[in-house]
Predict the structure.
Amino acid sequence: MLLLLISLFFVAPLVAVVALLWSEGIMLPFEKKKAEYPPFMPSIKYPNQIAGWIETIVALIGTRAPFVVYEGMKKLPQGYPWIVTGKFPNKSPSGCGYAVADVHIAKEILTSPHSRKSVMYDGVDFLTCGFQNIFTANGHRWRHARKFVAPAFSSNHIKRMNRICAEHLEHFINTTLDKYAEEGKAFDVSEEMVTLTLAIISEAAFEYPMSRKEMREFTHNLEVAAKTFVIMNPLHQKFPWLFPAVWRARHAAKNLQALAYRMMDNYRAVHKDKKEHEFRDDTIISRIVNNPNYTCDDERAADIAIFMAAGHDTTAYSISWSLIEIFRTRPAELTEFRNKIAEMPDRDDWRRVTELQYMIKEAMRVYPALAMGTVRDVGVEITYQHGKEKVVLPKDSIYFINLFPMFRNPEYYDDPDEYRPSRWANPKTEEAHIPFSIGSRNCIGQTLANAELSTVLSVLCARYDFELVQEGYPEFFSTLTPCKYMMKPTKLF
Ligand SMILES: *[C@@H]1O[C@H](CO)[C@@H](O)[C@H](O)[C@H]1NC(C)=O
Ligand SMILES: *[C@@H]1O[C@H](CO)[C@@H](O)[C@H](O)[C@H]1NC(C)=O
């Protein structure tokens, strides 16, 4: 009896304390990795320690995630490639997870035939009401959807995309921007840009005129559903009926699905009387509705919803970060761009000016919208030689390809934290700049994204001046959001 009491009162807490210390990496001698495996992520909180479970999980999914991982990478020994082992419980067979900010290792992973979308994304299927979507699926389901939809983004259609971007931009200028300019008021940059990109993608990709009300509902539903489903709490996954957050998220996902159905209905109604050869084949909606390889409309709705989700805020934030950085720092390239376009009567030529492209590229480097990149599982062992360092990565592990620290890796960029468009005139390397990722699963929508970025920013930089009247803050949740940056526009002509 006494023994039992002793064990209850003394041993149990002792075990708990040791377990906590060990899990937090404070009692290092218990666990040393083999020399060739990447080191554990260094702790930011405790000098000379490794980051434990809690710190690692916060580092990977917290609102400051990109910055935390970047700080961790900076603590790696000089000359070692930017890759660390993350200590967190996960479902991969090896139980190992890695954060990767070295572009060569990232390329090995992204282009490996043994690489798959990660089990980490399992929750994302709930976002599309339990149906797999083009973002999460592997194998045939992914292949037929991707192959069939790809022509919608071919550069043949770039003229149409640019025209739609220009029209919606003009509408935004007439109804919103000029009012702010006349009244001398500031606006929230990312909020306005989200509305603009939603209007563009719903027409360019889905031939659907989205109302303001639908846009508000869409962003709200997406936020509610994504919060619960993008990186899913294991308890939520096991006992979904227990948690009101999951009920709310499911309801929100149903609303997203309903929008996708309205888009399909609208498309079918408009094209009802057309013969097959008259169908337009250059929009995502046409490629999805007319693809016979989907087994049902629920699968189609899943792909439509995921395209809407992935296709608007990433672009909106890239435009926003560009505006913020350009008008905060006023680089020489802005003046140069304005001088050049003064001689260009045709606005369509503005977007191709080199200085504009440098300014955009540099904003997407310092603030990549997809800051934590993408997650992959790789079924084979990877060995990589980096100078003198040999790196071995065990098979069946999870890889977080983290773009934010990669784009600030001093191996590729001098003064990496500085917004300096001129670096692209004579770059140290081009290969580390992969904002749309690479490999067969890179960003399928990059032609549309580039059309939006260059059309919107060329006109705004040419015809308006912006004053950053309120400094906001970056917040990470699946994308790197510029929150509460307020800008006051002045019309130049
Ligand atoms: C649809 O599936 C059939 C049979 O599996 C295949 O032959 C065809 O190529 C697929 N179409 C697309 C676009 O993948
Ligand atoms: C914007 O305003 C201009 C000038 O008032 C007008 O010519 C143009 O048609 C308007 N465009 C849109 C899309 O509202």
